Amino acid sequence: MYLTYLDNNTWLIEIGNKKILLDPWLVGDLTFANLAWFFKARRLQERLIPENINLILLSQGLEDHAHSRTLKQLDRHIPVVASVNATKIVTELGYTQIITLTHGDTFSFGQSLEITAVPGSPIGPMLVENGYLLKEIETGFSLYYEPHGYHSPLLKKFAPVDVIITPLVDLALPIFGSFIYGRKKALEVTQWLQPQVVVPTTCGCDVIFEGFLASAIKTIGTIEEFCFLLKQNEISAQVLKPQPEERIPIHLSKRKVEIN
């Protein structure tokens, strides 16, 4: 397994001999409803679109997960696995192979990979987007991704999971509080899933944030503090600190099967 962090929520995941482009924002600015005065994110350097992508995986339909300008640059014949909300975006853009997963659904990608949708981030009162579990069939190695730190207790039945990609710090707004949950939520899901490796996401390493909303956002916690929480709770998972465009090999060990 290899992970390449392309900043913000965007990852290239190489698993089961497949290249999965996850929540891509690679070109152009990022705004919501074209309200740049309210929120705008821009890259210091645009990312090259990875070659030989086998699948696009979209957890949400919001622009920071299903970035329209980026999706317009990609081959519309690449298969897409998407949440219900993200399906609307890629349908309008003319993608030809769309697999919509609701919570509990599993998609088998050839004979090498299974993708299961689990409850993820709530968007308003009526919509809950997707988190994903990816399982490599040959080895049994698995990966869990949820970009806002909303982890369903239903995940417990999938334990152990080898790799977790999720926020490790909180992002908060005055009065409203946190809208991205790391810290305690990341610790909780780590206790549930017993991963070998934990990887932070949604950190915007090489991104400049502008606008009214961006100026009010506060970061609470650090990756170092999260590592200390793991140590306090006697959790031995390795915490990685990926740099943008760094292709990281993930070295995993086969777990012993306990026989009662």
TrEMBL record:
The keyword Hydrolase applies. Gene3D superfamilies: Ribonuclease Z/Hydroxyacylglutathione hydrolase-like. Coiled coil: none annotated. One of its GO terms (molecular function) is hydrolase activity. Keywords: Hydrolase. PANTHER family: METALLO-HYDROLASE/OXIDOREDUCTASE SUPERFAMILY PROTEIN, METALLO-HYDROLASE_OXIDOREDUCTASE SUPERFAMILY PROTEIN. This is Similar to Zn-dependent hydrolases of the beta-lactamase fold. It comes from Richelia intracellularis HH01.
